[in-house]
Write a structure and sequence with these properties.
This protein is of the alpha+beta class. It is built from 7 helices and 16 strands. Its cofactor is Mg(2+).
């Protein structure tokens, strides 16, 4: 397959191929978690484990085989100064999102794969191997969009025929459900939530927060602290495919492929379906 947006006939097959890569990476992650993590701190004081590195190595090989010639921008390679340059079409990969949850007792860590085309995340996979939860979403070349969830064990076959369609719910006028980071709730995000009419607040790790918005269990996910593009792209594609949106707090589009900023993402808010 040549670089660029996939042919319409291959859309679901491409989404399934990305999902299969994530399931394989999940198997590697769980094996290393059982054997011992080998954690250390990176230059930015964030943790990295042997599972991050092994998952990224597998994903790079898998994704380069699925979309030859499409740049793969992956977290650990960028951290080591080995990042590729983005093009009009490129992949953003977080091989283990929620490393703190991985090191701790929580199963709320994910494998994130996002395909960005002309500045917009179009395909997204979020897979949580410890809880066997798979989310997949895509906005196709035709303009149609679909989002799914499934229970799949790490290393298993994808079987996309069994995926369950999901959609964002309309955001209620009063009493919204908000989801925020379990480990990285910053003061600005907390203040924003305090100013909203929130009936229920959920605390969840990793990109699983996007999944809750995409399946209609939450209406809003704000993150006013700085993150990186590979933390967001897969979930952005998923929420977009489910009928929601992800924007800056001022309503403008999130930028992607910002090498000069080392792929840092400004504050964002993920929304369910808006009237």
């Amino acid at each position: 397959m040549s670089p660029g947006f996939p042919a319409p006939s291959g859309d679901l097959a491409l989404l399934a191929a990305f999902a299969q890569a994530a399931l394989k990476a999940g198997s590697v992650i769980l094996r290393i978690r059982e054997e011992g993590m080998g954690a250390r701190l990176k230059s930015d004081e964030s943790p990295v484990t042997a599972a991050d590195l092994a998952s990224e190595e597998l994903l790079r090989a898998e994704l380069e085989a699925i979309l030859p010639g499409v740049p793969v921008i992956a977290e650990e390679a960028v951290a080591e100064g080995r990042g590729e340059s983005p093009a009009n079409t490129f992949l953003l990969v977080d091989p283990l999102d929620g490393t703190r949850e991985f090191i701790g007792a929580s199963g709320e860590f994910t494998v994130n794969i996002g395909l960005v085309v002309d500045g917009l995340p179009t395909f997204g996979i979020v897979y949580a191997p410890a809880v066997e939860r798979l989310y997949a979403g895509a906005t196709f070349a035709s303009g149609a969009a679909q989002a799914f969830r499934a229970q799949r064990s790490a290393g298993s076959a994808v079987d996309a025929a069994g995926w369950e369609p999901i959609a964002c719910r309309p955001i209620p006028a009063h009493g919204i459900v908000a989801v925020a980071s379990r480990s990285h709730l910053d003061a600005d995000t907390a203040a924003l939530l305090d100013g909203l009419d929130v009936a229920e607040r959920l605390s969840v790790g990793s990109a699983l927060k996007f999944g809750l918005v995409a399946e209609g269990r939450a209406d809003i996910y704000p993150r006013l602290g700085t993150v990186c593009e590979w933390d967001v792209a897969a979930g952005h594609a998923l929420v977009r495919a489910a009928g929601g949106s992800v924007r800056r707090p001022d309503g403008t589009a999130l930028p992607y492929g910002r090498t000069a900023e080392n792929y840092r993402v400004p504050a964002f808010i993920a929304y369910g379906a808006e009237a």
